[in-house]
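Continuing the series of single-chain predictions for the mutant panel. This is the parent chain; the variants come on the following pages.
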Amino acid sequence: MTKRITALILSIICCLGLLTACYDKQIDGEIIKGAEITLYLGEQVLDLDPALCYNNDSALQICGLIYDTLFTIDEKGNVVNSIVDKYEIHEDDNTQEYYMMIYLKENNCWSDGTVVSSEDVVYSWKRILDAGFNSEAACLLYDIANAREAKLGDCSIDDVGVYAHDSLTLQVNFNGKINYDQFIFNLTSPVLAPLKEQTVDGYADWSKRPATSVYSGPFMVRRVNYGLAEDGSSTPGTQELVLERNPYYRRSSEDKHLDKSVSPYRLIIDYSVTKEQQLEMFAAGEIFYVGDIALSVRGNYKDTAIIRDLMSTHVYYLNQNAEIKKADGTTEKLFANKDVRLALSAAIDREAIAQTVVFARAASALIPYGVFNAGSVKESFREIGGNILSTTADMSAAQSHISASGINPADYSFSVAVRAEDEVHMAIAEAVVAAWGQLGFNVTLDAVTPAINDEFYAGEPAKTFYDDIFSERYASNDYEVIAVDLQAPTADAFSILAPFARSLSGQGQDMKEAALTGIYEDSPHKTGYDSQEYEALLEEIFANKTDAAARAAKLHEAETMLLGDMPIIPVIFNQNAYIISGELSGESSNYFGFRNFCKLKLKDYIQYLDIETTSEEEAEAAE
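Parent structure:
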């Protein structure tokens, strides 16, 4: 009997050794945890708050790697569970009780080893629904009891019908029967990814200082360097972002060494070289993936790059509340004039801009490709809706609108705010500014650059980082015209169209002012657009919980109505084009068009690591 027990113990020890060996390698005494893959995804991202990433495609791509959502849409367009294990729907017409129980998986953990809990979900949703928080995605949660009332300030945020039943069970209450499939579809949005309260409320500028954050996705931010010295001065050649495998992704702290849900150990993104240099390094085998090809040479890659549509439209917001300078020294709300907005849209040659960008489609409307029609991936909203806008410039129509507007363009001067670091956005803006100049307007480019943050915390200077001034100006409506990538929060057209309705805009309020005046009211869209007819149509769509075909028809009607008023000017439908080394395998994409690197593998990765090996034979033996 004793011999059997001893043998069993030895067997267990051997098995544990094998399991450990599967997880880590050792070369010359150094533990090798996996491939460290150098690649390039997009522009440098300065703010990693998933609730605010829907105006920046590069930010959304990074957030998709470091944050997980309750449900997701796979590459084929199917809604699948992610953090969620299962859910139950409860309806009682007698008691008028309608609610959903959502059960989270036990093996979802933050990168610090703590469980992703129902409390995290409650906190994140209430943050978006808070009356003082700006979020154009708030409408995705308006089926929840008291959600709209809380956003308006008519009730406490504590009255919102979402509760942590226990650490892994979420109860969501509704005012009546809803379209539950649609609600689950809404929960695929990256904007609604759970966040940890202790992180968000515990650290100032938490999303700009990744070392203070925890992550629920397959990767976590291990190191970020914005190229700043301790005194705040710039240090060229040091900009990088290092994403490291989240050791707790899809497994609890107890079994973290028994499984490897994420293959690469690190993704190293070097921002210190130009895009042209990245391509040279790719050709030399020093970079294995380039996700944003230099604009100057895109034409050379039209036939070799892998091209995917993004659910994203590059648009120009016209601030109808902006006081535009006139030649006589006075100001006027120029963009409150509908004919001016229509003239500016008609003057843009979208086809020419799409050809300049190369990896793009001329925007024939607002809703991009990839968005479902009537809730089905089998039907494309854009293909069924057809073209609403001319994709070529129509200067005759533009001049006609100018005449109808009653203004002299030469009397007005305004600027277009653009991310200075985004070469594509800058190239588009140059073309748009030139077109508007042909109409006689005095238009300038306002290239917005990040600013060094030199704030102090607890009496001590903070470790230097950048503030994303562009995003801050966007959030505070501090612009005359602004260029943004409008990312669809979900694959449902409603998520894009709803924020233009006052009652669904999700814009935050100045709660101190509201408390003083006693006036709590919905705010119009960020552009200042405020149409009672449009709002009534969107409310009708929101109220339709049963007839998907009728709802889709109304959504098409709403898109046409919105573009008839033109508070927002679509320019191109964004695409993502990338090149990938033959040394890599296992790459996939999600339905939003961004990469999934969980199973990414680099062939013979040991040879690329910065370690010393005595011979090729030893490296091969380690494999």
